Amino acid sequence: MKRLVVILGVAGVSLSAVFVRWSTAPSLILVLYRVGLAALLMAPPLFLRHREERLTRRDLGLCLASGACLGLHFAAYFESLRFTSIASSVVLVDTEVLFVAMGSVLLLGRRLTGRAWLAVLLAFGGSAVIAMADTAAGPDAVRGDLIALSGALCMAVYTMIGAVCRKHISTAVYTFLVYCSAALTVLVIALWSGTPLAGYGPVNLGTALGMAVFCTLLGHSVFSWGLKYLSPAFISTAKLLEPVLASAWGLLLFGERPGLPVLLGGAVIIAGVALYGRAASDET
After folding, report:
1. How many of the other CB atoms lie within 10 Å of CB of 150?
2. Which of 83, 119, 177, 207 is surrounded by the most beta carbons within 10 Å?
3. How far apart are CA 251 and CA 246, in angstroms?
4. Which domain holds residue 228?
5. Among 217, 247, 231, which residue's Cα sits nearest to residue 39?
6. What are the CA-CA distances from residue 225 to residues 41, 88, 92, 204 (Å)?
7. What gap in Å lies between CA 213 and CA 101, rounded to an integer?
8. Angle subtended at Cα 215 by Cα 130 and Cα 127, rounded to the nearest 5 degrees
């Protein structure tokens, strides 16, 4: 059941590319609005149901670092969508599973079974097939791909830190601190770069609100919740379903028609996620 909840969270996150395509504001502003609104929506119930939760300086520092990585991830992901297709961008952002798998072994002391490694490689292989089959890429595609890869690295660090924090910090407190930190991070970058903070019209507030609700509170918050019960590698592997769903949205709403290689790659990704779901119990 917990794995199913995480998969539903992936469905929510897959809408992010759609909202970005409908937006006109700079990437930093979209991230600021998104995580800022998410934090504001969380604040009332969090404080109304407040119960004392002791956080050490180390806990607070890790939460803030995690949020900074999340903010940078969003900024890189949104910016990559300006230069390359939805399928290519989402696929490359979701290569975080390789970083997380290696980090889980090297830093968290986890031992992945052979079947688990095969599942991770299958999922990544399917993602690579989709990326190579992307026919919507323009002359700036390489730039967009590199930006997306940097977003994958930031997301991997965010996931790894979250696995440590969620062992003893509640989902509500952790995600609230993370979203506040993410907002502060992109706010500082926007001010430093001279990016105006307002004047982008109601359409961008609407898309940011959609991302805050569907992609953040019902998406990334679900991932943070799942880190307490499931391994970081499973969370990252499950996210590889996002390219399949995002590509479907791209076809329906923007006419980005995937070819046969994209469909085959999606099938391989689903097979990898299913295999890892079976192998997850062997990791713990």
Report:
1. 18
2. 119
3. 9
4. 2-283
5. 217
6. 17, 28, 24, 28
7. 29
8. 15
